[in-house]
Specification:
Radius of gyration: 22 Å
Number of domains: 3
Number of strands: 5
Strand order of the largest sheet: 1-2-5-3-4
Order of helices and strands: HHHHHHHEEHHEEEHHHHHHHH
Largest sheet: 5 strands, mixed
Helix content: 55-70%
């Protein structure tokens, strides 16, 4: 018997609802309710999971529904993955951890990272026997994993996936979701594998490795304020500050050393874009503070998370950034 992930089934039904269909009707067709599923006490069989997937694909008329789910993975779920892979320094290590993790939680697929001299590829392979027994679920889990691999690379490394080369066993009928990650048309293979190809340099990209308490907020920040493909100096510095933030932000010397520049040269590059290191740091801290204020009114806790010694200095800085007190800003903008 396979391990049926109720979390994946819940995300599947939530996606179906987002697309304008009733998850309750789909649950009813299998013999339970959404409340039963959300309670965590329901035991789903492999046959139940296959029937749910089949019904969802048919209801949405989307044979690549799994790719849609992976491509729209929430910041919270990416944050959870980031915490699971917390010790990863580079994308290579993160993918290695991901392979071990998937091996533990599912028999449906095999996830591998194959490194060659000048490039590498991620390979997702469905189990041939289980693919025969549970064809719809097997295909959709492969598509979820494919899309999540692209999204993890884009979000957890703050870098664009636009040049990704993809190979799969069939032609995608709907390429709209894929276009978010690559402009290349996937090639078709006859060996039943799903692959993502990339240059060897990609594996060395640093992964966001913030302290767990701040990781989801940083991902939220990136999702709303960062253009992964933007290549300006201010964008590079902003990405560096976020991806290297643990319990304090890097100082100017750390940033300039990372880019193999002197401090004056970096400052001059930023001045040419009408900004400075201090301005970027203020913007990053302010936006993170606002994200945190949406979650809690514990000012001391927020101050500590974004690198202030105490609540008093944070209150003073916030008023300097926004022109109003934290209380006024919360009342006028976050209620």
């Amino acid at each position: 018997m396979l391990l049926v992930s109720q979390n994946i089934i819940l995300r599947l039904l939530q996606a179906v609802e987002t697309l304008g269909h009733s998850p309750d009707l789909i649950c009813k067709s299998v013999g339970f309710t959404m409340d039963d599923l959300k309670s965590g006490q329901l035991v789903l069989t492999d046959e139940d999971a296959e029937k749910i997937w089949s019904t969802c694909v048919k209801t949405t008329n989307n044979p690549e529904l799994g790719f849609y789910i992976g491509a729209h993975a929430s910041i919270e779920s990416l944050g959870l993955l980031g915490q699971l892979f917390q010790n990863a320094v580079s994308l290579k290590e993160l993918l290695s951890f991901a392979a071990d993790y998937l091996w533990l939680i599912t028999d449906l697929i095999k996830f591998e990272v194959i490194v060659r001299k000048k490039d590498f590829y991620i390979q997702i392979t469905p189990d041939l026997h289980l693919q025969t027994v549970f064809p719809v679920r097997s295909k959709q889990v492969c598509l979820i994993t494919l899309a999540m691999s692209l999204r993890i690379k884009e979000v957890l490394t703050l870098s664009s996936s636009e040049t990704a080369l993809i190979s799969m066993p069939f032609e995608l009928k709907n390429r709209n979701e894929l276009l978010k990650f690559t402009n290349n048309i996937p090639s078709i293979n006859n060996d039943n594998h799903y692959r993502i190809f990339g240059s060897i340099e990609i594996l060395q990209i640093k992964v966001i490795n913030a302290n767990p308490e701040m990781l989801i907020s940083i991902l939220d920040y990136c999702n709303n304020h960062i253009n992964a493909s933007h290549n300006s100096w201010s964008s590079k510095v902003e990405k560096f500050l976020l991806s290297h933030y643990i319990y304090k932000f890097p100082v100017l010397n750390d940033v300039s050393n990372h880019f193999n520049l002197g401090e004056r040269t970096l400052q001059r590059n930023l001045n040419n874009e009408d900004t400075s290191y201090k301005d970027i740091l203020k913007r990053v801290r302010f936006n993170l503070a606002v994200i945190e204020l949406k979650k809690t009114n514990n000012i001391k806790e927020i101050a500590s998370k974004i690198g202030f010694a105490n609540a008093s200095s944070f209150r003073k800085a916030f008023k300097n950034w926004s022109g109003v007190s934290i209380k006024e800003y919360t009342i006028n903008n976050l209620k």
